[in-house]
Amino acid sequence: MGWRMKFNFLKLKKENEKNKIEELLKIIEENKIQIEEYKESLTSANEKIKVLEEELRIIKEKYLEDENNYATKENKEEIEVLILGNNNIDLEENIILSEECSSEKLEQKEELESKSLNDKDIDSKIKNEDEVIYNDNKIKDNNIQSDLYEENILTILKEYYLLNNEEKIKTILDTIISKIKILEKEFDTNDMLLLIYISYFNNLLEKLLNESDEINKYYLSNSREMILLNIIIEERKCKVYESITECSQNYIKINRNIFEGFVDEIKEKLIDDINKLTYRAFNFTYKINSIEYGVDTHNITAWARDNENSTWRLVEGLVSDSGHEFYLLQTVIKILNLRTIDIANLPKKEEEVS
Questions:
Q1: ∠311-313-319 over CA atoms, to 5°?
Q2: Rounded Cα distance, 310 and 312, in Å
Q3: Which residues form a coiled coil (predicted)?
Q4: For 95-111, what is the mean pLDDT?
Q5: What is the rounded distance in angstroms from the CA atom of residue 285 to the CA atom of residue 307?
């Protein structure tokens, strides 16, 4: 009876989790519909502001006392602020464009117009990264505050990248590329670096480079990360028995501080994705007749070091299930002039590059 109760409990728990997920998906879908409806109604923004006028007059004193008030004593009658936000929408949908507000609507000197969910959480909503603030006579139609927009959208991109959500990543990348002329002004080196690699992983690098002069300039630089990317691109074009001067996994090994500008989680994810795209590299090869009895192996295509230590050769061979020894036919080793060693002469932990 014990195992049956446990089974029923686990089954019930799984069903509850499934119901929660379905409910969340339903909420997200409903909010998507609401966002689309809101976008269509932006043309009547001035009328909606009038509806909120009475409520905003009540909270006027709260704003005037706040040292972080957006309106100064000199320009109170010239400024109105529209706050757009919704805590429940999906992250990548939280990019909203507003039409220009008109200061001519203001009739009193101390009036400040704003849209907020309620009085108690006004301060937190202003600080919330999901909100975008537009100032009258400073922001034109369809023009966003690039610093806030850039911060939010890159944060979203990183989150979905760590979650391996390819569909969401491509959607966000398309959005970034379409707005790149605005966003690139705020990008630092790490922002451009991350965008370049994630775009490459998703076959959007060429599109990104064509749209952004700043990112293209960084792509052509001699930074370690851009050198590595060019090695990756060259390596993936190679066929069996072709050689290259350097291979990706060896380059990462000898440049331990690569991607040092990122937190460990992002750095490890980038390196892991690179390793999945590229071939393993072995500094030494072993003759296939030296495979010891009981050692299991499987086929692999990998880079092998030549005898002069000047190039890497892409070859097919056998690798032990432990992952340390790379075995090739003696004739292949000889013809390609690959570095080889007797299995007893080298500690296993030093044999593989990666």
A1: 125
A2: 7
A3: 7-69
A4: 41
A5: 10
Is pTM beyond 0.90 here?
A: no
Tell me how far apart the alpha carbons of residues 77 and 230 are, in angstroms, rounded to a whole number: 56
CB 99 within 8 A of CB 63: no
Could you tell me if 79 and 124 are in contact, meaning their C-beta atoms sit under 8 angstroms apart?
no
303-348: pLDDT as tens digits = 999 998 889 999 999 998 888 899 999 999 999 999 998 655 555 5
Q: Report residue 9 as tokens.
A: 């409990």
**What CA–CA distance (Å, rounded) separates 78 from 108?**
10
Instruction: Using a pLDDT cut of 90, give the percent of the chain over it.
Output: 45
Which residue from 354, 290, 294 is spatially nearest to 324, judged by alpha carbons?
A: 354
Q: What tens digit of pLDDT does each residue of 41-59 get?
A: 555 555 655 666 666 666 6
- Residue 162's nearest CA partner among 270, 278, 259 is 270
CA pair distance 174, 141, nearest whole angstrom: 21
C-alpha distances in angstroms, 255 versus 50, 190, 261?
Answer: 60, 17, 14
